[in-house]
Amino acid sequence: MMQGHVEGGASDPVPPRRYRVVPRAGGWAVAVNKATTRPLPDRASAERLAARLQAEADRLNRDQHRRPQ
User: Fold this and answer.
1) Degrees (nearest 5) of the Cα angle 49, 51, 53?
2) H or E element: which one contains 23?
């Protein structure tokens, strides 16, 4: 059995994810926090992917904080 003390808990608010497009060698990438995708060939492709990922993250965040009925 593991022992220790956990700081915070599940009720602590999670900061919202913000996906952004960043230049990378070989193209453009989508970044969130310190993680990035592999380079995409053009900025428009990266912007479409970032928008899809952001919409999904927003939906998940909204559903996570919805009160049970």
Assistant:
1) 70
2) strand 20-24
Structure tokens that stand for 43 in this block: 């900025």
Residue burial 7-35, b: 16+ Cβ < 10 Å; e: rest: eeeeeeeeeeeebebeebeeebbbbeeee
What's the pLDDT tens digit per position in 1-59? 556 666 665 666 667 789 999 999 999 999 999 899 999 999 999 999 999 999 999 99
Alpha carbon distance 19, 34 (integer Å):
11
Residue 44 structure tokens: 């428009």
CA–CA separation, 39 and 19 (whole Å): 15
CA–CA distance, 68 with 25 (Å, rounded to integer): 46
Written as six digits, the tokens of 10 are: 């599940």
